[in-house]
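Query structure, 239 tokens:
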């Protein structure tokens, strides 16, 4: 089984790669700028699982043409879209470049990639697509208005696309975390994160490995009847 993990250099992407590798998957490890982290991940996985293939794939989702990515992909059973970026500021302070970046990385590029790779996913009649969304796609967040918008669009896309490809054996789902202990939240102080934690009924932030466990379930072959869903993984926070 072969999976493409977009954003493998991020915390959730790397955790997902380790989880799937342990289960016997060969992986395309996408990154943009963080080559050092991908190299470390590649070396760790190849040492632990020498009979599986791990292929680093460099691709800039803001600048490169989709053909650069898809030309490097051969057999494919699953795609996990774990890439992401955000800008924490008021809408009136965002510039057009930042708007375009969020749209490109979260929505336009995944759609273009899926257009090109759908046939590969359908070949064995058990293709799997999982997006890492956000609880803000449902409830919205001040200071992250555009981020909330594209994450909501991600769920809408998955809902519609799941209907279109179900007969091909392809499932499409979104895992939408709440507060997660990742590098993306490093811009917040420990005091700010503690205040968020106090609002979460589970009394803690989620971990990347927990999200990876859920992704691993969604990409297994027997999960195909679960499709078109956004699963909110938030410890009861803001729901």
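Result returned for the query:
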């Amino acid at each position: 089984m072969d999976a493409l993990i977009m954003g493998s250099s991020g915390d959730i992407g790397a955790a997902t790669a380790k989880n799937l590798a342990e289960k016997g998957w060969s992986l395309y490890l996408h990154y943009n700028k963080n080559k050092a982290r991908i190299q470390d991940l590649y070396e760790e996985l190849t040492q632990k699982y020498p009979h599986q293939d791990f292929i680093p794939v460099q691709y800039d989702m803001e600048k490169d043409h989709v053909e650069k990515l898809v030309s490097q992909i051969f057999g494919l059973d699953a795609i996990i879209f774990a890439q992401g970026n955000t800008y924490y500021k008021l809408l009136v302070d965002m510039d057009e470049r930042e708007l375009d970046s969020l749209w490109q990385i979260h929505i336009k590029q995944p759609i273009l990639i899926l257009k090109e790779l759908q046939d590969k996913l359908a070949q064995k009649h058990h293709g799997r697509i999982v997006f890492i969304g956000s609880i803000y796609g449902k409830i919205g967040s001040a200071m992250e208005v555009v981020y909330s918008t594209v994450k909501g669009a991600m769920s809408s896309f998955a809902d519609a696309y799941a209907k279109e490809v179900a007969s091909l054996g392809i499932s499409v789902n979104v895992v939408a975390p709440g507060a997660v202990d990742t590098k993306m939240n490093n811009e917040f102080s420990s005091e700010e994160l503690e205040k968020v934690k106090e609002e979460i009924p589970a009394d803690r932030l989620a971990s990347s490995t927990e999200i990876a466990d859920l992704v691993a379930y969604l990409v297994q072959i027997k999960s195909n009847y679960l499709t078109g869903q956004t699963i909110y993984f938030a410890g009861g926070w803001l729901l």
